[in-house]
Structures
1.
Amino acid sequence: MKDYVLDILNWYSKNKRDLPWRFDKNPYHVWISEIMLQQTRIDAVIGYYERFISQLPDIPSLANVSDDKLLKLWEGLGYYNRAKNLKKAAIMIVLEYQGIFPCTYDCIIRLPGIGEYTASAISSICFNEKRVTIDGNVMRVFTRFYNDSSNISFSSTKKKIHDHILSFIPLKSGDFNEGLMEIGERLCIPNGVPKCELCPLKKGCLAYKNSNYYLFPVKLEKKEKKIVVMTVILLVWKQKLFIQKRMQGGLLQHLFEFLNVEGKKSKEEVFHLVEEYGKISSVQESIVYTHVFTHKKWEMYSYIVYLDDVIHSDCFFSVSDIENHFALPTAFQVFLSNFKKEVLQDTL
């Protein structure tokens, strides 16, 4: 692969996408984009990134933002601890580096929420430090190029790939890293037939030569996700919905949610569960939805409960208020959308 360094750099120079965080090499912009791109496709991130930067244009604004506003800006991206760590890191940069993003890998990796990959990406792209970024795209390109059947789920395989690329990475390490990753994402694709004829590595690629790209990369089979059954209850009073903040630890902590309980509940059980919230007019069964997380699935049954009177009216909000001011996780967004479609439209 070392014989194709210039080919990779030339391909990237001619074919790189015009992405908003590539307009400059501002480490703040690269940092935010890299954190957002974890577990999320580039096309999906652009809108979130532009909204985030427009509201929090620099490190001090991120350090001083309220938690609720931060989580609202992150709404839809998931993995909300990433957003919380962004703020922790921004505070650290303000306190220890006078608000200026640190310029070396060793300092960057000390920041909350930043691991080897992100520190390598920022230091190579923004500060020309010779660091290697290894993600799924790079491992796929590497194992196909060499017909390497090492299991990429093992840290030893990742280290082997890292050390090999480090032995020949050029001075333009940031462009090389981004070029190799973009080849993996756009040409040496994970699903479907790779676009080998467009790839600058094809002449040396053993998978291209042997027509066996589908054998690589080798990785462990995914474990079955744990299924959690729950019942979601939309309490409705004067076309407003009850929401509460999740205070328990674990998934989606400090975000807002509709009332919910573990297990699949009957209409009668729901009636008794919500009596404490006010005078019940009716209980109606609603949609069933399964939301998939990294390690578990939520199998969600739902009810809409109409109340004639309530005890805590300050917990009820209009749909527009919820959409504009509260960070509602994707797992609950579908119930809000269904309420707008099936209930609010019928009353217009």
2.
Amino acid sequence: MNFDRVIAVRTNKTVYRDGDKCLKVFGEDYSKADVLNEALNQARVEETGLNIPKILEVTKVENKWVIVSEFIEGKTLARLIEENPDKKDEYLAQFVDLQLLIQSKTCPLLNKLKDKMNRKISQADLTATERYDLHTRLESMPKHNKVCHGDFNPSNIIIATDGTPYILDWSHVTQGNGAADAARTYLLFWLQGDIEGATKYLDMFCEKSHTEKQYVQSWMPIVAASQSVKGNEKEREFLHTWFSVVDYR
């Protein structure tokens, strides 16, 4: 394996290109269960027929776990938007269509989104009253079984050289309510400082999915709380503002 060409660096993981392969290398202290679960989830999503890089193998190199998958040649949707700002609406429409395509699939063996959110809310730096309120809100939400990406943003979409879109990074995939996944994407736009993009995205998602905007917004405090467990201090501070000030009920 060739680890010379770095594609991306994330907390406790580095992604390399080795010819037609993509190597995701995890830190030595990264949980084996989490690595194997990520590979398993991606393999399960492959079976839905979505365009995603296929898992080739899971191995260890110098005491570090490595997930080896196909490398997709192309540009991310985030880069295309940056290079062609006049086409942003067109790219956002394609972005929403891809998310709805994902949510049209089912994958019964994936972890349930509600279970994951309940665990995260229990770990959040909140008062007992706030956690109870969020758990109660979450339990009242309709139960769905749609495939939910969990980190759906333009940097996780590759447009291949032949124009085919591929969806990357399935480490957070679950099955559950698509509106919760949309709320997560909306907050990701906010975290990146693209407030205009967040608004346009939400409008497009609601129009194309025939979903009431208030319904997606009602998920935002729940999603923000569950996401606040990870991330840097600045992100946690931002997400905390959604717990108390956002109440769309």
3.
Amino acid sequence: MHNSFLRLEHVSFSYYSMLGEFMALSDINFNVEKGMFVALVGPSGCGKSTILSLICGLLKPVGGSITFYSEDFHAPRVGYMLQHDHLLEWRDVYHNIMLGLEISKNKTPENLAFVDELLEKYKLSDTKNKKPSALSGGMRQRIALIRTLAIRPDLLLLDEPFSALDYQTRLRVSGDVRDIIKSEEKTSILVTHDISEAVSMADVVIVLTKSPCSVKDIIPMEFEKNGIQRSEIRKSKLFQEYFDRIWRQIQDENTEM
């Protein structure tokens, strides 16, 4: 556990309604190392987004524990990217990026310089004065990521952030987003229905069962270890092997009644 950043141990969660208790998660166990990019995949409605809500503290588990490990902070700063970019149309790009810093009252000269550095580093400076409506869907998601990074999060949670994009844009933007996250050395957890996306972006893919959700499989993506460059991942035989393994596991869950 020397490099552990986050650990979920025997986590369970239930929703309650007039009809009674519905167990969404049952005995969830996994570990996330610092700097790791993890993808969560599983059947529709299995509880992937619920896990993110538990990790960031929006929900509390009814059983088990969620523990962060670090020498640098007590409570982690969490950045959250959603399906839609939620850029404010009456603000230009620069002031959209400022939003998190404004809310946290953290618009320090150091943080303002950091925003300029991010925009310059990822070749987005020429968008600063544009309104969101002037940007493509892919560009809007890149700006949403820079806005999230501006608060210097310790953990990035990505809840299907590319689902509103067309296929070609999704391929390009997901690659760009992964490159930025890796360049900034951020620990990240992605929820996606797209197995190809999970395999191509993640260091580890965690396959979940149907409700009540538990961990079915934890699969390290070992492309680099096998000498496969990132640009060649989707063309490789190993990519197809990972895809087929995950697809079969999810199909097994969908067919078990």
